[in-house]
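Sample entry (291 residues):
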Amino acid sequence: MPSLKDLRNRISSVKATQKITKAMQMVAAAKLRRAQMAAESARPYAERMERVLTNLAASMGTSGHVPPLLGGGGNTTHLLVVCTAERGLCGAFNSSIARLARDTAVSLMTQGKTVKILCVGKKGYDILRRQFGRQIIEVIELRSVRTIGFDNADAIGRRIVALHSAGEFDVATLFFSRFKSVIAQIPTAQQIIPLALPEEVAAAQSGAAYEYEPDEEEILAELLPRNISVQVLRALLENAASEQGARMSAMDNASRNAGEMIRKQTMQYNRSRQAMITKELIEIISGAEAL
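Predicted structure, serialized as tokens:
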């Protein structure tokens, strides 16, 4: 049975931990509002950009030269761009993204596909390297980046385009966590190369005639690489908001658990102290009666 001193040390240690978790919860709550506004502001632009490119690609049909980023190549090598956080203590945020990427990689490898992984964020690399160490071709860390901007996403997008131009992969899929609320973040897989063409969009465009200047091929050659950077930016901003929401929830749960531990340890301390006092009183009374 632990002594009273051990119990006091435990209680003080848990109280110190509770102060840290409460402080981290408050910091995450302060950062969440700004990150949520950035993620919500990026969604309309990214969705509209993808819609415009989808309509352009559908209007091209089979005529003309199809840009490489629209497909037309093979389907044997897949690049998984896994975007996670640089830090932990945010619940299942990192592990849920890595789990989705891992399940996708296992499914593709079962089909005989070649899988390559590009990790954006240290935590995704730490989780995936045990099982897919040979498949990880590069790790991009954003530890020194204080605020996510288009320059960061553009550097990653250019790297993806360069790998595709070099023939390193055929299909690229982006993995991130879409922010829904403080307690709900949805792991998402989005194909960015080749650009996915929904059937309903292609059917709607087949009956309409549009004239573009410059032509569709030149517009797509300019916008397709930029779209990849835009989608990466959206993923990073969604991740930033999801990370703060997950950390806020995790630290709130940790503070509650610490409070429960303090209550139980305090109860045990009081019982042990009362038992020692009772034992000393019995010894004093027994000694007095013996005299």
